[in-house]
Amino acid sequence: MSSTTRGARARARTEVTAAIKEEARRQLVAEGAAKLSLRAVARELGMASSAIYRYFPSRDDLLTALIIDAYDSLGEAAETARAQASQEPPAGRWVAVCAAVRAWALAHPHEYALIYGTPVPGYTAPSTTIPAASRVALALIGILREARQESCLTPPALPDGLTPEAERMAADFAPDLPPPVAVALVAAWAELFGLVGFEVFGQFHRVVEDRECFFRHAACRLADSVGLTRSPATTG
């Protein structure tokens, strides 16, 4: 087989794979992840049911591909925001990443629901999703590392009883950061996605009206909680 033929086949496979995932995303919007069906996707694309299995052997394989794509898209948004805010103090970079997470989620609510909403019955995400799922957390960890190098990080107080857990956390994912910062980071990470989830899923209805201003204030408070020193311009 010539390289030209192999290249054409590879391009065709890439195009069909993209079409399958795009149709699957339309199904997520219309039916939700729990009702995603390979046969329904094939039918909408005019494919034989047997043909789609050459691209995705099971519904779970397709779900995994969609989940990785969503995590990667979110991670790219966070990393881009961090890079664009590189001239700001670390607290400003932190707030920029948080704002990018919120903006992405509001622009992609169904994909956000896929990765941070109700688990899909019968589906367990494989370890292949971990690198993509870690991108936002790694962006935040990177900001904390930069802050420490720039003398803009003051570790928060930590109860004595939490010290062993703090040391374990730091050893697991941020051995170059003080253990109290590792604990605060995990809490802030959870609170960030809690804030975003409340907005995406409608829990702020008739509670928070100026949601952008509210979110910026909350993101600044999260920066405080992990020990980032804020400049007046960052204060929200």
UniProtKB/TrEMBL annotation:
The keyword RNA-binding does not apply. Residues 37-56 bind DNA. It comes from the Bacteria. It holds the Pfam family TetR_N. The keyword Transcription applies. InterPro entries: Homeodomain-like_sf, HTH-type_TetR-like_transc_reg, HTH_TetR, MT1864/Rv1816-like_C, Tet_transcr_reg_TetR-rel_C_sf. Residues 14-74 form the HTH tetR-type domain. Keywords: DNA-binding, Transcription, Transcription regulation. This is TetR/AcrR family transcriptional regulator. It comes from Streptomyces composti.
